[in-house]
Description:
The chain is of the alpha/beta class. 29% of the residues lie in helices and 22% in strands. β8 (130-133) and β9 form a beta hairpin.
Amino acid sequence: MVLALAPTAPGISRDTATPCLELLGGSRLIDRLLGTLGDLDLPAPLVVTHREATPQLRGVLDRSLSVLCVDGGRREALRTALAHTREELLLVHDAERALTPSSVITETLSALDDETDAVVPVIALTDSVKEVRPEGLRNIDRSTLAGMQSPRLLRRAVLEHAVAQGSSEAAGAAAGPERFDEVLAALEQGGRVRTVPGSHAGFAVLDRLSLWQAQISLGFARDTSHRHGISRRA
């Protein structure tokens, strides 16, 4: 089963509250994701979103797709999805990561074995990261860090347990329930999580800057940042 989470966020456009409905080269982001999933012959996904975004999604998506409405955050979305399917393996994909290459999805699916409870694509952290201490900042070795992406493949029992028992500590005690992460919760409970290489194209499109980056990655816009004194990275 494929689950596409479509959360609301501050709209990129004036009339769009859900980032995955933004147009990119004439196609909505979520349509690009659905096309990638369809090319891999994966089952039609369940689309889970907040109540305020439900009419928009139901209005633009194919009527054969199930659009589930939830009141709450990611944990509640996963609970709702679990209640609407009996599949033993669930592929969870964030709809705003619509440019994730099919190769990442394929590798995620093929990485699950008898010794693994969940698989998640990750990408090396390149930004400078500091730990804040009372005495000042301390460098953190970036080679020990990675950013998690989508999709996440989880066994049903592991996801059910993570959703039911996942504590706020698993997602960061100060983050609150809206920052719940099923992979971190599974790890907190002893789950065996395997990682596969992610992709720089798998970033989340949530604001104007990331939409511009998506346009550049697909060749719909030109990177002119160097004109404003921002050096290009190799």
